[in-house]
């Protein structure tokens, strides 16, 4: 096993510090695993008009297949964080992969117009499994990667979630045609069997290859955290950590501002099919490709922001800058979402919005890790994601209501106003980089 050492850090710590080549295999495997789950989040909503036609259910019921991801996450994040903190990355990932595969196979048995309840059960199992994914990137990056790679690795880890969402936007409109019921049925069958086979393959890879942690810590900050965890392995430390997080003013401000940004992204993604078709009828595939554009641009944004953070360590400034750009992107998207402007302009402006709005995800994770060090990354990012789900649950129905009672323009202006509040909250977060101080 190839490895590289960091001798400059060893003199300050009793533990040797090493970065293992295997870290990239672990990270890539996690990216694939994360994608296998997140690609199912939007697979119904992006073809909502087709799903309502086949299963004879309402738009709201189809939207619930997306919102169930948010609803189940909130009560389950605490046991999931406890699982991650006390049993490590490997067992958490195995449980999540197993649940994702089981839920995917349940959907295979929902091919009949009267079996929407079966497909919803499968979607719920997959959604529950998501709790064993969203908190992983920051923890995996910290446990396996060196000081100058942590932010980049976290960005790539978040990339997995975005990759899955991109697949979820792209393939359902291609696989499930808006034709006769028998054609829709064959399309759903293709989609469900493909996803079930893929998630089963990922589960096998994880059982064979995924490891919890390297033998030696990869960074000085991780060495400090290992020593701390080894000296106090008690159940009560988890709840004490939660208490300390809620007493951290900067972290509380980040919770709200992060929730606003990502909750807005969830609302737009869930209702994108309706948003596009309202302006451009019979454009289901365009809606999927616009969603793909948003997420692919966000993948580039995630990696770019991760590299920027590793080079500069300007966590607060990067967070504020990306948040402001997200607001600007939303404003541009609002003014171009018009049939008179043309659908190809929406591809461009949606890409700008996606680059910053989904590129913000790893930036928020990393700032949370800085503000809360030496608390476990799984706990801080788990709470961050729980608040995101709350905002997603609140903003998605609000956005749906506004789209029904107002024009698209004013509904989007409202989201711009909400994002502006998030920008204000972000600017008053204290620039307290505790993890950087531990490395000094």
TrEMBL record:
<feature type="transmembrane region" description="Helical">
    <location>
        <begin position="316"/>
        <end position="335"/>
    </location>
</feature>
<feature type="transmembrane region" description="Helical">
    <location>
        <begin position="116"/>
        <end position="138"/>
    </location>
</feature>
<feature type="transmembrane region" description="Helical">
    <location>
        <begin position="150"/>
        <end position="171"/>
    </location>
</feature>
<dbReference type="GO" id="GO:0005886">
    <property type="term" value="C:plasma membrane"/>
</dbReference>
<feature type="transmembrane region" description="Helical">
    <location>
        <begin position="26"/>
        <end position="47"/>
    </location>
</feature>
<dbReference type="GO" id="GO:0015232">
    <property type="term" value="F:heme transmembrane transporter activity"/>
</dbReference>
<feature type="transmembrane region" description="Helical">
    <location>
        <begin position="409"/>
        <end position="429"/>
    </location>
</feature>
<keyword id="KW-0265">Erythrocyte maturation</keyword>
<comment type="similarity">
    <text>Belongs to the major facilitator superfamily. Feline leukemia virus subgroup C receptor (TC 2.A.1.28.1) family.</text>
</comment>
<keyword id="KW-0325">Glycoprotein</keyword>
<dbReference type="InterPro" id="IPR011701">
    <property type="entry name" value="MFS"/>
</dbReference>
<protein>
    <recommendedName>
        <fullName>Choline/ethanolamine transporter FLVCR1</fullName>
    </recommendedName>
</protein>
<dbReference type="GO" id="GO:0043249">
    <property type="term" value="P:erythrocyte maturation"/>
</dbReference>
<dbReference type="GO" id="GO:0031966">
    <property type="term" value="C:mitochondrial membrane"/>
</dbReference>
<dbReference type="Pfam" id="PF07690">
    <property type="entry name" value="MFS_1"/>
</dbReference>
<keyword id="KW-0597">Phosphoprotein</keyword>
<dbReference type="GO" id="GO:0020037">
    <property type="term" value="F:heme binding"/>
</dbReference>
<keyword id="KW-1003">Cell membrane</keyword>
<dbReference type="InterPro" id="IPR049680">
    <property type="entry name" value="FLVCR1-2_SLC49-like"/>
</dbReference>
<keyword id="KW-1133">Transmembrane helix</keyword>
<feature type="transmembrane region" description="Helical">
    <location>
        <begin position="67"/>
        <end position="84"/>
    </location>
</feature>
<feature type="transmembrane region" description="Helical">
    <location>
        <begin position="191"/>
        <end position="210"/>
    </location>
</feature>
<feature type="transmembrane region" description="Helical">
    <location>
        <begin position="289"/>
        <end position="309"/>
    </location>
</feature>
<keyword id="KW-0813">Transport</keyword>
<feature type="transmembrane region" description="Helical">
    <location>
        <begin position="341"/>
        <end position="361"/>
    </location>
</feature>
<dbReference type="GO" id="GO:0097037">
    <property type="term" value="P:heme export"/>
</dbReference>
<feature type="transmembrane region" description="Helical">
    <location>
        <begin position="91"/>
        <end position="110"/>
    </location>
</feature>
<feature type="domain" description="Major facilitator superfamily (MFS) profile">
    <location>
        <begin position="26"/>
        <end position="434"/>
    </location>
</feature>
<keyword id="KW-0812">Transmembrane</keyword>
<dbReference type="GO" id="GO:0006783">
    <property type="term" value="P:heme biosynthetic process"/>
</dbReference>
<feature type="transmembrane region" description="Helical">
    <location>
        <begin position="382"/>
        <end position="403"/>
    </location>
</feature>
<dbReference type="InterPro" id="IPR036259">
    <property type="entry name" value="MFS_trans_sf"/>
</dbReference>
<keyword id="KW-0472">Membrane</keyword>
<keyword id="KW-0675">Receptor</keyword>
<comment type="function">
    <text>Uniporter that mediates the transport of extracellular choline and ethanolamine into cells, thereby playing a key role in phospholipid biosynthesis. Choline and ethanolamine are the precursors of phosphatidylcholine and phosphatidylethanolamine, respectively, the two most abundant phospholipids. Transport is not coupled with proton transport and is exclusively driven by the choline (or ethanolamine) gradient across the plasma membrane. Also acts as a heme b transporter that mediates heme efflux from the cytoplasm to the extracellular compartment.</text>
</comment>
<dbReference type="InterPro" id="IPR020846">
    <property type="entry name" value="MFS_dom"/>
</dbReference>
<feature type="transmembrane region" description="Helical">
    <location>
        <begin position="251"/>
        <end position="269"/>
    </location>
</feature>
